[in-house]
Write a structure and sequence with these properties.
The chain is mainly alpha-helical. The protein contains 10 helices and 2 strands; from the N terminus they run αααααααββααα. The chain folds into 2 domains: 71 residues, no CATH class; 122 residues, Orthogonal Bundle (Cytochrome Bc1 Complex, Chain D, domain 2). The chain has a two-stranded antiparallel ribbon. It binds heme C. Heme C binds next to helix 6, helix 7, strand 1, strand 2 and helix 8.
């Protein structure tokens, strides 16, 4: 194209005619592809891929954002739900059984039969039947002194096992004890345990006289 400017002498000496130049240009134009501007169309499937990805990301965020709450990953925080209010407590004898084995069975035995001369039975015990307050109180602050359970005398000392347990745990245990081994007591609520715990604040171990005065054993 600029041959003419670069080598004017040679062109002239070889006698390259203007006609010949035009012919060469035409030949070059025919054989060489025109250079393109530096872009080509993005393949359409990549455009769709990106749109799809953006859509998926939006869906993922709306479903899994946990409302962007700081406690979204804290399993112990009750899930806030506008209608349900605070989580409702369900007395659970199965949970109670596990807690009983861990906290009570060392003395009262898994069979609930206790140990003659040492630990009174809970199976068929009138102390466990009727009002749930008697039992909740014994679990919370303990019992010491001579008692008679199912015709047998005991003079032992039960510590305040319940002081280290939560209201709900005690409710589960009491619910279990009152329904196991043929016992037939109503389930116990955690709110009842909380109420009794509050009323007993600072109270030491019960003597049999004191607890039986407040909650006489019911005749069967
Ligand atoms: C360290 C041993 C020990 C543990 C643990 C224990 N108790 Fe007792 N419990 C006793 C003794 C001893 C008595 C009798 C106290 C007395 O003679 O004055 C008793 C009495 C009772 C009574 C009243 C009498 C009866 O037999 O009905 C109940 C109810 C009772 N315990 C429930 C429980 C429950 C529920 C647990 C577990 C949360 C528990 N105890 C854990 C030793 C224990």
């Amino acid at each position: 194209m600029n041959d003419r400017h670069r080598q004017p002498d040679r062109q002239r000496s070889e006698g390259t005619s203007d006609g010949r130049l035009v012919e060469i240009h035409a030949q070059i134009a025919r054989e060489k592809e025109e250079p393109r501007e530096g872009f080509s169309l993005t393949p359409i499937f990549i455009v769709f891929l990106f749109c799809g990805f953006g859509f998926w990301a939006g869906l993922y965020l709306t479903r899994n954002s946990g409302d962007f709450s700081a406690s979204a990953f804290d399993l112990d925080v009750p899930k806030a739900s506008a209608s349900a209010g605070p989580a409702v407590f369900e007395p659970d004898a199965a949970k109670g059984e596990k807690l009983f084995v861990a906290n009570c069975a060392a003395c009262h035995q898994a069979t609930g039969l206790g140990m003659p001369g040492a630990f009174p039975p809970l199976a068929g015990s009138p102390w466990v039947a009727g009002t749930d307050e008697r039992m909740i109180k014994i679990i919370l602050v303990g019992l010491a002194g001579e008692v008679e359970v199912k015709g047998a005398k005991f003079n032992g000392n039960m510590p305040n096992i319940g002081a280290g347990l939560k209201d709900a745990q005690i409710a589960h245990i009491a619910t279990y004890v009152r329904s196991a081994w043929g016992n037939q007591g109503e389930p116990v609520m955690d709110t009842k345990v909380a109420e009794v715990r509050k009323a007993l604040a600072g109270h030491g171990q019960f003597s049999p006289q004191e607890i039986l005065k407040a909650h006489p054993l019911e005749a069967k």
